[in-house]
What we know:
This protein is an alpha+beta fold.
Amino acid sequence: MSTPAVPDGAPWHRLDARMLVVGPVNSVVKLLPIALLLLLTGRRGDPTQIWITVGLVVALIVAGVVRWRTTRYRIGDERVELRTGWLRRQRRSVPRDRIRTVDLTAPLLHRLFGLSVVHVSSAVGGGAGDSSARLDLDAVSKAEAERLRRVLLDRAPSNGVATERPAPPAPTELARLDWSWLRFAPLTVSSLAGIGALAAAAFNLAFELRIDPRDIGVVADARRRFVEAPLWLGVGVVGLILLAIAVAGSLVLFAERWYGYRLTREPDGSLRVRRGLLTRRSLSVSAERLRGAEVTEPLLLRAGHGAQARALSTGLGEGGSGALQPPVSRDEAHRVAAVALRTQPSEVTRAALRPHPRAAMRRRLVRAVAPTAAIAALGWLVDPRVTIAALVLLPAAVLLAVDRFRGLGHTVTERHVVTRTGGLRRRTVALQCDGVIGWTFRQSVFQRRAGVVTAEVVTAAGRGGYPVLDADTTEAVTFADDATPRLLTPFRTDVHRTAQYSST
C-alpha cells in the first residue's frame, strides 16, 4: 500500500501488511521468559499475573499496528527517506550516492511469512572519518527486498520507483560452502564466545525460574563422583567435557551461520554474500565502494592453516559485516580475496613483501620481554611464585616477539598497496592505490634513534588506517611515494636528512 505521489515523483510506501502479525509475535517471543516468570511465581488463585501477561500481549499488538500505520519510506533519485513514529515522529534521510551496502536479513519468523529486512548502510560526511548512518526497513516482501537491493545499488536514476526490470544476467559464482571447512570452526574465538553466551543465558534463565541444577539427579551424582575423585582426574574430566561442549557448539554455530553460503558477483559488479540457516542473511557490497580486501589469521586459526577474507569498503568499519566467507583454508582465503579484487593472489595478499630492518626485531623483543622481566622483578619482592610464573612465560614472550617481527612486511604492486602486521591476529591488507587518500608518519624518540618510522596508510574504508610498523625511514617514504606518485616527493629531502641525523 502506498500514499499518493509527492511532487518529485517518489511515492511513499508502507511496510508489508504481514508485519501486523510478525512484529507482535516477535515481541511476544522476546518477552516469553518474563511472562513465564510471572505465571510461575504468582500465587494460586490470584489472576493478577494472568491479567498482566494478557495486558502485555495486547499492548504489543497495539504497538505493532501503530508502528505499521505510522511507518513510511520512499526512494527518490537522490535520497532514501524513512518516516516513523506517532507520539515522537522521526524522519531519516540517506543520500543515494553515499549508500555503501545493502544487507537483506530474514529471521526465521520473517522467512515463514515471506518477509525480509532491508538494512541500508551509508557514510555521512567525507574522508577517512566518515561516520556511518543506517536505515532499516523491517519488513518488506522478499520480491520487494530484491528490487530495493538492485535499485539502491544502481547509480542510474530510478524516478523514485522500484520497478520491475528485465531479467538481469545470471550472477557469477565465486565461492560456495564446503563442509570440510567445519574443521576450522573450533579454532575461532567468536564461536567459543557464542557458546559461553548461550551457557550464560541458560544459567540466568534457570536462576530466574529458581531451578538449581545441583538438585537434578544426574548432576548431583556427577558432582559427588567429582568430589570423591583425585584432583587431577576431576580437573581432567571437567576439562574434556568443556572442550567437547565447546567443539560441538562451535560446529552447530558454524552450520547455522554459514549454511547455504554463496559468494557471487552480480551483473552490476557488486559482491553478494548469502548465508544462514535459521536467519538468512544477504550482504551486497557496491563495486564502486570496494577499496580492497583483508585476510585475517587469528593465532588458533593460523595454527590450523586457516584464514578468513574480508571486504574493505567505504562505510564498512572495523565492526562491519564485511566477511566474504567463513573461516577456511589459507589458500582459499587468499584466492577469494584476489577474485573479489579481480586479480591474482600474487598481486594482492600473496605478494612478496619487503622485510623490515633488524631494529624492528629489537623493538619487538624489548616490548615483549621488558614487561615480563619487570613483573618478575616486582614479584620477587612480593611472592617468589610470581617471579617463577613470569620466568616461565618469558620464552613464550620471546617467541611471540619473533613471530610478530616475521609477520611484518609491505610492498606496492601494480595497482595495490599491501601491508602485513600482527602476531596474535595477523592481518594482510591489500588496498587499491586509488583508495589511498593520505599518509600519516609517526616517529617516537626511540624510533628516531633506531632509524625506523611507522607509516599509516589512510583510507576511507575498513579501519580507516593501516600501519606499516617500524619500517626503515627512507624506505617508508619511498614506499608511500610509489603507492601515491608525486604526493610525497617534496618530503624526500627532509627524510634523507632525518635518516642521516639518526645514523650519526
